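CHAIN AND CONFORMATION:

***
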Amino acid sequence: MTTTPQPTTPAPATQVPAVDEVLHARNLRSAAVIAGVLDAGLLNHAGRPDRLPTALFPDVDPDTVQAIWNMAMVVGIWAGKAMLRPQWQPEDLDRFQAALDEAGHHAMARGVAVAAHCGRTAHPADEDLLLWGDHE
């Protein structure tokens, strides 16, 4: 026989950050598992890793797909090198953020702004209202 969980008293406020961290970590892990399953499914569909680009864009000329894939690899390598730096270069990221924002790429600009704040002394969560929306 199953029982319905009964509501309990809320956790003390001092436990909220710990619970938040555990739940957030579980969500990140769940996202990684889903991404892994999607990756495996894409490879299953393509048959071989070298066929992945054309599997993503079956209706596009293979030479065009290869050119897009080559550019994506350059971007990925740049991002990997940026992640290996001992310190972010916030000023460089600020320039990228401004360029994206000015071009109307607001979601991408917010993502770059979050990364730029990670290299500064203030914690990004201290400014979450500024980064994640127009809250007044």
About this structure: The radius of gyration is 21 Å. The CA atoms of residues 82 and 88 lie 7 Å apart. Residues 16-46 form the longest helix (31 residues). Helices lie at 16-46, 52-56, 62-84, 90-102, 106-117, 128-132.
